[in-house]
Amino acid sequence: MKTMTSIALAAMSCALAVSAWAAEPIRLIVPTAPGGGTDGFFRVLAKDGEPHLKTSVVVVNVGGAGGSIGVSQMVRAEPDGNTLAGVWMGPVTVAPHTMPVNYGPHDYIPVLQLTSAPYVLCTRAEFPADDGAAFVDTLRQHPDQYTFGTDGAGGPAQLATARVFRPLGIRQRDIPYKGAGETLLALLGKQIDIYVGSIPPIMPYVKNGQAKCLMVTSAAKVPDLPRAISLDELQLGQEETLLWRGLLAPKGTPPERIAYLEKAFEAAAQAPGTRQFVASAGEQIVILKGDALRQRIDREYRALGELARSLRLGRPGS
């Protein structure tokens, strides 16, 4: 009888907790300025998540310092499950090694990874290589002859490129830009030879023949880019760097609340609006949670930290 009473009380307590959570709007911190891929994705996801959460989701943009300002706000928030951060990998596994931040990978709870896509290395049509293997050979044989544009010193695209070029013995000149948009303009304007960035900005120019993509930073090939060599083909699958997006919660958020958020946002990721947005961005829905996501973050954090230090990009003590 006592056991039945305990079960009933536990069920009632859980129901009351869910009811209380549903009464409060969720504050979703997106650590970028309004506009752009990350902001757009989380706005669509927030809208699709509301029916499953049974409450509103308010997106709050907190840009600056590579996303670390927004993540810092999330880390310091009350761990009641009503404040989350919608992030890409930059402020999670890159920024802590390249700038002063007040958090590390165990100062928050990874709730859910939602999307994933590789960085791509693309050239103008006239570049003297027409497939990935020839691209690698050309870069190896002509050190310091070509320039490649990335998202700046210590940025994810720069580290993703260095992570591949170093073991291949490639030495070319890195030109820093503020993001993929600027890098693309520099490529089209013939200021650089190689674009390094996300897939969506370059795809219209691949389709009209102005550009060709010859390498991806994923282990697997990208079907839409058949000329691009993958890291598995180069026997460098362990050096994969992906642009992923996911949700973080403050450390101390109750496990039952994390489970509730996981379930709701995983369902939201399958909604037509979110799926359409992800497909149009050249990305994929890839769900990771729990220990799998924690291990992925820890592994990437270590690898990019070691790389940043070897490139002398790391801040002292990182």
Describe this protein's structure:
Keywords: Signal. Residues 1-22 form the signal peptide. There is one protein chain. By secondary structure, this protein is an alpha/beta fold. It has two domains: 26-117 and 243-311, D-Maltodextrin-Binding Protein, domain 2, CATH 3.40.190; 120-239, D-Maltodextrin-Binding Protein, domain 2, CATH 3.40.190.10. The protein is 45% helix and 20% strand. It contains eleven helices and eleven strands. It has helices at residues 2-23, 37-53, 68-76, 90-98, 132-141, 156-168, 180-188, 199-207, 255-269, 272-280, 290-310; strands at residues 26-30, 57-61, 83-88, 108-118, 120-124, 147-150, 173-176, 194-197, 211-216, 242-250, 284-288. Strands 2-1-3-10-4-11 form a six-stranded mixed β-sheet, sandwiched between helices. Strand 6 (147-150), helix 6 and strand 7 (173-176) form a beta-alpha-beta unit. The longest helix is centred in the N-terminal third of the chain and has 22 residues, at 2-23. The chain is globular and about 60 Å long. The termini are far apart.
